[in-house]
Amino acid sequence: MKNILILGAGTAGSMMANKLYRSLNKDLWKITLIDKDENHYYQPGFLFIPFGIYAPEDVIKPKREFIPKGVDFIINEVQQIINEKNEVLLKDGVVLNYDILIVATGTVPVPEETPGLKEELWYKDIFDFYTFEGTTQLAKKLENWQGGRLVINLCAIR
Ligand SMILES: Cc1cc2nc3c(=O)[nH]c(=O)nc-3n(C[C@H](O)[C@H](O)[C@H](O)COP(=O)(O)OP(=O)(O)OC[C@H]3O[C@@H](n4cnc5c(N)ncnc54)[C@H](O)[C@@H]3O)c2cc1C
Predict the structure, then answer these.
(1) Helix-then-strand count for the chain, H and E
(2) Pocket lining: 50 vs ligand 1, CB cutoff 6 Å
(3) Are 8 and 25 in a shared domain?
(4) HSE toward the beta carbon, residue 136, CA cutoff 13 A
(5) Whether residue 14 is found in the same domain as residue 75
């Protein structure tokens, strides 16, 4: 039995798990999918939350709904890929080995790379709306915003 390990059960990781599960011989391949978060966030929906078009709960669904029953789904955080041993170390110390590794851990904004952004005004007067936390905080701010100057800044992602 050979192991396929998929890191990240977001859009890419869950699509890979579904497609591979359907097309590979189940007696020869075991598929394991790992994510640190039980919930799937529909990211395009984040853009509508600050304006009250979507509520936060509209963009969240359990990841398990999108994962075939025969795929081993582990909730844990990936700490390290030890590629010389074909191993992945998880936060709780468990080590998993793989024959094929698929990395699908996505991207995150890194506002801290722009001096002044992620400091005392973060989530008070400065917001991102590219994360669930950022967009829900911005929605709260806009509820009572009386107007003024609004500056839009493009920041780096990692
Ligand atoms: C605000 C916003 C609007 C967007 N609008 C559009 C749009 O209109 N159209 C469009 O096509 N695309 C849009 N996108 C982009 C689209 O959402 C992404 O391209 C897509 O989600 C990327 O999929 P992914 O699987 O690479 O990453 P993600 O879906 O982000 O999945 C990554 C997964 O990896 C997990 N992970 C990360 N690190 C670890 C770790 N160390 N251990 C365990 N798990 C980990 C995360 O929990 C996450 O579940 C938008 C994105 C955002 C944020």
Answers:
(1) 2, 9
(2) no
(3) yes
(4) 11
(5) yes
Q: How many domains does the chain have?
A: 2
| CA-nearest residue, atom 20 of ligand 1 | 11
Reported pTM: 0.93
63-118, pLDDT tens digit by residue?
999 999 999 999 999 999 999 999 999 999 999 999 999 999 999 999 999 999 99
| CA–centroid distance, residue 51 to ligand 1 (Å) | 21
Closest CA to 98 of 85, 116, 115: 85
- The residue range of the domain holding 89 is 2-106
The response to whether residue 71 sits with its C-beta less than 6 Å from ligand 1 reads: no
Same domain, 124 and 148: yes
Ligand 1 center–CA 92 separation, angstroms: 24
Amino acid at 108: V
- Do both 90 and 126 map to the same domain? no
Same domain, 41 and 74: yes
